[in-house]
Amino acid sequence: MVPPTVRAEQPGYRRLASALREQIRAQTWDEDEPLPTDGELEKEHRVSRQTVRRAYLELVNEGLVYRVPGRGTFVTPSRLRYHRPFETVDDLLSLSEDTELEVVEALAGTYDDRAAAQLQLTTRLMYGMRFVRRHQGVVFCATDVYLPLAVGQVLEDEATFLEPGLKTTRTVIGALADHGIQISGAEQSMTARAADELTAPRLGCSVGHPLLHVERLYVDASGRPVEWAVSDFLPEHYTHRLRLGRRSMPSPSLTAAPHPPKGTPE
C-alpha cells in the first residue's frame, strides 16, 4: 500500500509520484512485480485517472519505471538506472562517486576543427582523449574530451588517462582541479542524434540508435576555456530532467491612474 502524503502545496500527481518514488526506493516491489494499476491507485488515493497517469508519466520520464501494454507498470532494474542531478560543476565532479571511466583512446596530441573553435585556440596544438562511463558495469555514456595544449600537458602524469582499457573513478575536471586548474562554470548545449559507426560500438548499440548528445565547454574563473567535452548518452540508461518555472509577474504601477472622463477637470 502506498502511504498518503500531506504536501498539499504540490499538485496531486506530484504528491502521488513522490509517494510512489519513496516506495520504489524502499524496494516495496520486486523488479518483476507489477506496481498498482491505475484503477487501484485511483481508488486508494481518491484521485482522478488522469492524476495517476501523470504521476506514472513523471516516474517514466525519470527512468524509475517502465510501462508494458497489457501487463502493467514495473520498476526499472537498478542496473539499468542512473540518476544524479547535474545542476552545478560540483555535481559533475561527483560522478566519481558511483561511476567508472574506461579509456578508449588515451590522452594524446590531436586536432579537431570544432574543438579548436570552442577552445578559442590560435594554433593546431591540443590534447584529446575518448572514454566511456559505466554505472554498475553498464555503459551509459561515451565522451570525447579536448584540451588546450597547456591544460593537456598538466595531465600527462595522470597514468590512468594514458593507456586504452585502463579504468578509474576519476573525472577529467577532477584531475584538473587537483593540478590547480579550477573550473568555475560550463556552457551546455543538448540535442538528439543517431549513433554512427564510431559511437555505436562504444555504447554497445546499433547504428542509428537514438542518443542524447550533450556538449559542455568548461571555463576557469577568468572565463578562459579549459575543456570541451562532447558526450552521447543512451536514453534507456540515462535521463536528463529539467524543471522550469515562471518569472514573477511585474507588479502593477502604483502611479498610473485612469484618464478622467471627458469634461472632468484634471
Features:
8 helices, alpha+beta, 266 residues, single chain
Along the chain, the helix and strand elements come as HHHEEHEHEEHEHEHEE
The stretches of 5 or more residues where confidence is low (pLDDT under 50) are 4-8, 82-97, 251-266
The gyration radius over C-alpha positions equals 25 Å
Percent of residues in helices comes to 10-25%
Structural class: alpha+beta
DSSP strand content? 25-35%
Q: What characteristic shape results from the CA principal axes?
A: elongated
Instruction: Record the strand order, biggest sheet.
Output: 6-3-4-5-9-8-7
The averaged pLDDT comes out at 81
How many helices? The count is 8
Give an overview in words.
The chain is α+β, with helices and mostly antiparallel strands and about 270 residues long. Helix content is about 25%, strand content about 25%. It contains 8 helices and 9 strands. Strands 6-3-4-5-9-8-7 form a 7-stranded antiparallel β-sheet. A two-stranded antiparallel ribbon has the order 1-2. Helix 1 crosses helix 3 (about 50-60) and helix 2 (about 40-45) packs across helix 3 (about 50-60). The chain starts with 11 loop residues before the first helix and ends in a 33-residue tail after the last strand.
